[in-house]
Amino acid sequence: MLGSRTDLHIFDAGSVNGTRYCNEILLPYVRLFRGAMGLQFLFMDDNAPYHRTVAAEQLLESEDIERMDWLARSPDLNPIEHVWDFLGRRLAARTLQPVTIRELRLALQDEWAAMP
């Protein structure tokens, strides 16, 4: 986005629900990015259940963020699916595989930062 990228956001332990999605993704990242882009901003997500909660829908509407309509799990249409595949391949190619959650978190952050 805009020739750059945000830090990789890794959710802490627990399930992701609509409230967490709003508080940890939509408010700190998407709302600010929409502000930088202006009215031409069109938001794309992958139709995960927590993306479609009443809380998420209401927040997007209150922030005047338009969501792109498209099919769920369409990797050819959603570039982030290719990013997840790339990260998975990079992790699998590591000589030392992460064993703990902390090691996995650090490995993902390293690979994210090294991604071209």
TrEMBL record:
| MF terms in GO | nucleic acid binding
What is the protein name for this chain?
Transposable element Tcb2 transposase
Supply the InterPro entries for this chain.
RNaseH_sf (IPR036397), Tc1-like_DDE_dom (IPR038717)
Going by the entry's taxonomy, the superkingdom of the source organism is recorded as Eukaryota
Concerning Pfam families, the annotation shows: DDE_3
| Tc1-like transposase DDE domain segment(s) | 43-95
